[in-house]
């Protein structure tokens, strides 16, 4: 069935749900999990730091935060008896979806399991969907996991 699953994580609730699904699949199939975190430098720049400040202070800070997320998640999954690899990538202007699909091809995974926010309408048009792009770009199956929407009872 599965021998290796790629799980992109970003610390969000939907990323967490996807991780739980991947852990369940790994347990059932004996698969190894590869955790991937993509650091988008643009999300971490406020104002215009000088190049020296960026290189010596800002960049190391967001790379450490990404690596900490990977390390903490790896320890949690390994404690459940599942083998885990980690990969930290910097976007450097490349969309996360392209990096995720590329990593899947490079690592030879059987599937990608990732969270999606399930944006619709204007939000989807304005923000776009990395998950949707991964589905389009990936050469392997992609399982999208979304939080259940709470239904509002009619008054």
From TrEMBL:
- Top-rank taxon: Bacteria
**The UspA domain covers which part of the protein?**
1-146
What does the similarity note say? Belongs to the universal stress protein A family.
Listed name of the protein: Nucleotide-binding universal stress UspA family protein
Organism field: Pigmentiphaga kullae
């Amino acid at each position: 069935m599965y021998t290796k699953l790629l799980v992109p994580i970003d610390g969000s609730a939907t990323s967490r749900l996807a991780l739980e699904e991947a852990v369940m699949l790994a347990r059932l199939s004996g698969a190894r999990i590869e955790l991937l975190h993509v650091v988008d430098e643009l999300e971490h720049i406020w104002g215009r730091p000088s190049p020296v400040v960026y290189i010596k202070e800002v960049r190391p800070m967001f790379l450490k935060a990404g690596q900490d997320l990977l390390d903490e998640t790896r320890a949690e999954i390994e404690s459940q008896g599942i083998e885990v690899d980690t990969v930290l990538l910097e976007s450097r202007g490349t969309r996360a979806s392209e990096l995720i699909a590329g990593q899947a091809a490079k690592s030879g995974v059987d599937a990608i399991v990732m969270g999606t926010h399930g944006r619709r309408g204007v939000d989807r048009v304005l923000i776009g969907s990395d998950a949707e792009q991964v589905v389009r770009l990936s050469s392997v199956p992609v399982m999208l996991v979304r939080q259940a929407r709470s239904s509002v009872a009619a008054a």
